[in-house]
Amino acid sequence: MEVLAVVGFAVAFLRAPTPDGSDWLEFAILAAGASAHIQLTRRQEERRRNRTKTVLIDLTAVWVFPATLVLPATLAVLLVALIRVQRWFTARRPAHNFVYSSVAHGLAAALANLSYTAMSPQDWSTMTAGGSLREFGLVLVTAAVYEAVQIVYVGGILALGSTSPTVRTVLGSKADNLLEAITTGLGAVTAVLVVVMPPAVAIMAVVTVVFNRLAEIDQLQDAVVTDPKTGLLNMRGWTESADRALNRIRRAGSTLAVLMVDLDHFKWINDTFGHPAGDDVLAAVASALSSVTRPADVVGRFGGEEFLLLLPDADTAAAELAAERVRTTIAGLRIPTTDKRGAQATISGRTASIGVATFPRHADDLDGLLQAADSAVYEAKEAGRNRVSFASVPS
């Protein structure tokens, strides 16, 4: 992938004009703003990176993206290199990973610049009102290229290197991608300021520091409702989301289902392979549940080896199909892990007992649905495990 990136760099550099004095001045302004941003947020960034288990959205697009619009490709990539050298001291990642992600940032900037210049943009300082609409469209296209290169270059490798890739682990969450879009948008504003009012770029340096802090706060809020072992919602987060979903269903006069999934003989895994292997099984099951559910479904970890799924707009038949899909998916998992001595091992043939309760048939509130689904799980266990059991209809 890095060899292919060299080809992309070569094409972009060969087509780039030789930087002149104004280019170097704009480069210096962006470099100063980026350096101020990085140095003033070092501790915040360290904390963000230490808490992140999947994709980390780097907020330096505020400085890199404008470089793709106003600078030659050579200077845009040079700015990326300057930023990444400073990031090395907060990244705390293996060198090969850091170099790879740095190449991804540089390649995205180079190819986005190549795309932008190929569309024959106008000189912003002489632009008319009608021309500004066209330029705005070109900026949107360039932003799409900038993001797409990083998604393909980094996301593709993450998908290939994962035993059970999901959209969240490869591309990040919705919040992550919204953060990336906002950061790129701020980068477009920075580009305008660099050309029209260079001193005002200092304001963007302040904005990025505040924005970095808001991103950390958002991450902390997310951590409060997230289970650290599986990345799913914890009981607090699941209950909050489930309550909102239930209220919507109640207003719409529709139905929903709650599935409680209890892994069979989970203690045997911990006793035989060790607790790290048990954690690997929990993570694999969580990933499997995310892959076989809909975006509107609420998936969480109840505790121990139990998981909860809330399925909006699901009647009894739909709930049964979903529960069987979950059961067969878990039974088919082959989970790479290690044994107590650290040797490679594969855990397979594990099963789950699933209890199902539906609204309003089995209960009319969340606590009642959970109680009904829990009782159904015990019935499934007593009937031989590895099966789906529906709650009894209250008399």
Automatic annotation (TrEMBL):
Any GO MF annotation of the entry: diguanylate cyclase activity
Transmembrane annotation, as ranges: 61-85, 97-116, 136-161, 181-211
GO cellular component terms given for this protein: plasma membrane
Gene3D superfamilies noted in UniProt: 3.30.70.270
Cited InterPro entries: Diguanylate_Cyclase, GGDEF_dom, Nucleotide_cyclase, Rev_trsase/Diguanyl_cyclase
Chain ranges of the GGDEF domain: 254-393
One Gene Ontology term from the biological process aspect of the record: cell adhesion involved in single-species biofilm formation
Superkingdom, taxonomy of origin: Bacteria
Keyword tags: Membrane, Transmembrane, Transmembrane helix
Full protein name: Diguanylate cyclase (GGDEF) domain-containing protein
Origin species: Saccharomonospora azurea NA-128
